[in-house]
Each structure stands twice: as structure tokens, then as C-alpha cells.
Design goal:
Length: 436
Amino acid sequence: MLAASPNPRRPPCLVVGGGFSGLSAALLLSRAGFPVEVVEGSSELGGLAGRVEFRGIACDLGSHRLHPAGLRAPVLAELAEEGMFLRRPRRGRLLLRGHAVPYPPRLLPLARALGPRRALATAAHLALRGVHPKWEAEENDGPEDVGFEEFVRRRVGPAAYEAFYRPYAEKVWGLPPDQLSQSVAKKRVSTSNPLRALQGGEFAYPRGGISELIQTLADKLRARGVVLRTDCAVEPGGHKGPVLWSGPLDGLVPTELEHRGLTLVFLAIPLSRVSSVDTWYAPEERFWFGRVSELGNFSPALRRVGETVLCVEIPQGGARPGLQYTGDRLPELVAQLATAGILPGGVHPIAAEQLFLPRVYPLYPRGWRAVWTDAMERVAQGGDVFPFGRQGLFLHCNLDHCAVIAAQLVDHLERGGTAAAWAGGADRFLGLRVRD
Ligand SMILES: Cc1cc2nc3c(=O)[nH]c(=O)nc-3n(C[C@H](O)[C@H](O)[C@H](O)COP(=O)(O)OP(=O)(O)OC[C@H]3O[C@@H](n4cnc5c(N)ncnc54)[C@H](O)[C@@H]3O)c2cc1C
């Protein structure tokens, strides 16, 4: 494709961050005639949609997939049109009280795993409460934040809360759930309409792994003559023209908002396949991990003859980020995987590698919204800087949300919108909900 000739009336834009948000925005800016340059602080493009090379396989940074509805988003729709995505049946398993429940859950196996008393109590609670499609819209981040615990209990009842939601929240966030905001439940845990969670379905996945999205966008940008710099961490000031900031919000203004991290442990298992399950979900305390995925089940391109790679996700929660799981803790981790029924007993990894991602889950304690609003107000006074993406807006969001936000930002700039107006309206993105 020919390089675009920038429109002389468009100011030069600097895109900070070469993750999915940054590259999507750069592509749309370039097409709209803005001169654009991308700077990425680390040595590789991709951010959370990047990859780690393990046993010759481009491994995602934790289990990623695209919800088919997300392929309607800008940029992703174009990539879908170009035939980038495989369609895969969802083959997840939720580990609950010694049962492996198909996930998205089916009623009968879920009831069996909960046990008759809990299943009846949950069914009765839902029947009394009513499965209302607007559950989340009610009490929508108004002045009263009832907290995660109260919010979820009201919706699914105490039995399901204790069996699944409480241990999950404690594992990921490392805070007593009554100290967490109800926003966590809205963004992360689907409590809107339990029946929706019972629909199976499929997901979309790039043949070469999630990082193929990044490679493809980078190729499109280079073909248009857009400069992509890596190893180039920048400060927000000093650029003449709009700065589109997908780096962390606290890189723009000091704030108390913080993230929880995630340790990824990649294990090479000497079997051609462990099972047909793509992702195991493990909310219970007895397992260090919250999720385990088998990469070869996402795409045949991620398989290797005679071995298969598991990605074990261990949320930071209350644990110290420095814990090493590939040394002395490895036998215990392998034993837990066997107890969970993920690894056959007696099978040991032939290689293991660990990575810690420090900024994965934005931590939303009760009262966080006021802190966020204050930070945005200060950003709005800071000149020609436009925060966007998961880090810039301190969001818990999916790739398709990132694409929508990037497109809205480019549209805002095309219309000559100011940074103050952008930051002032950014709270509309706070209601985005993660689709797992
Ligand atoms: C474990 C896990 C599972 C996920 N699963 C899914 C899923 O199944 N489906 C889905 O749709 N989404 C999923 N996501 C979410 C998705 O990965 C993110 O929403 C998306 O990748 C965020 O992109 P981003 O560009 O906004 O942010 P990031 O990827 O965080 O990119 C920000 C970039 O900015 C760079 N940067 C920061 N500061 C500076 C600076 N000062 N100068 C220059 N560069 C800087 C960083 O190095 C980084 O590359 C998952 C995420 C994780 C971690």
C-alpha cells in the first residue's frame, strides 16, 4: 500500500505506547491524514497483547480470545474481513468443589458441583430476585457504592457468592471483597444475567496467536510510512501537537490508583496434548492459579511435535510479586495441576519459564471513582495530552474496547476536539464490561 500523504492542516501526533490501542489509533490517524509517530518504551511492540517466545512458540501473555461481537469494532472488523481469525468452539472448564464444570457453565453440571443445598438456595434466590436484564444498570456507579460483596450477594445469593465469587475476588485482588468497589463485579464478574453465561458459543482467535494482531497492524503502519520506535520511553511534555497517551495514567498525573499484577508460568509438557480444554478457571483458594490455558487448543500454529505448552496464570492478589514458581515451588505447582485434573499424574514439565506482568488488573477499592475523577480533572488541565487505552484511562477492558476508544479519540481529533473535552468525557468508558 502507498504511504499516505499527510494533510498539511492536520497537526503531527505522537502516539505513546505501541500496544493494541496505540497501533490502532496510529493507523486510524494516519488514514485521516495526520502525520503520526509511535513510541514504545519496551523493546517490543504489543504491550499486554504482546508475546513471549517459549519453546519456539509465540505464547500470548495469558489466555486471550476475542468475543465474536468484538469483531464488529473498528480495526478488528477490518482484520476479520481479511480472514485473520479462526473460529473456535469454547471449551472451558470451571473447577468447583472437585468438579470440572463446562464453561460457559451448563445448568446440570453446575448444580452438581454446587451441591444440592447450594444449588437450590441459588435457584431460589434467582427466582425471587428475578433475572433482570438491567441488573447492572440499576445502582450504576451512583453516589452509593455498596461494595463487591454486597453487590454480588444481592444478585446471585450467598451460596454462589461463597462458592465462586468471593474466593475469585480474593485471589485476584488480595483485598477483603467488602473493601472492593461494586465496579469490580460489574467489570469483571458477569452478574448481569446469569442465563447469558449459560450460552456456549465460540470465540475468534488469530491463527498465529494474539500478537499476530500487533504484527499485522505494525506492518500496515510501516507500509504507510509511519515510524514505530521501540526502546523509547517518553514523558508527556515536549511534543508540539497532540500526544495520544496509552501509557499509565500515573505517568501523566500522580494518583493513588494502583494495579495488581499477574505471574505467568509457561510449562512445556511432554505430551502432544494434555486435553481438549482451552482454558481452566480455578477460583478456589487451594490453587495458586486462577486460570490455565493450553495454547495448542487455541490454534494449531501454537503446537509443537511431541510437546504442548500450558500457560499458568497466578494472580498477584495478596502474594508478593517476586515469588518464583519455576524453582522450589515447581513440584507443588505441578501437584496442584494434577489435583485439579489439568495434568495427568506423574507427568512433569520438561521446561518452565516465568514472567511477571506488573500492571494487569486495575484495583478498584470503594471510593476509587472520586480519585479517578480528580486525576482526569488534572489531566484535563495538562495541555495537549489525550489519555486512552487500558492504562491511560485506568480501565479493565477488552481489545475491542481498546479499538472503539482509539476510533473515538481519532474522531475527536478530526473534529478539532480539545484534550480538556476528551478527559472531561472519558467517564463514559468506565461502564465497559469485560467479556471473558
Ligand atoms: C492475562 C490477560 C488476558 C486478557 N484476555 C483478553 C481477552 O481474552 N480478550 C480481550 O479482548 N482482551 C483481553 N485482555 C486485555 C487486552 O490484552 C488489553 O485490553 C489490551 O492489550 C490493552 O492494550 P493497550 O494498548 O490499551 O495497553 P497496553 O497493552 O498496556 O499497552 C501500553 C503500552 O504503552 C507502553 N508504554 C507505557 N509507558 C510508556 C512511555 N512512557 N513511553 C512509551 N511507551 C510506554 C507500554 O510498554 C505498553 O506497550 C487480556 C489481558 C491480560 C493481561
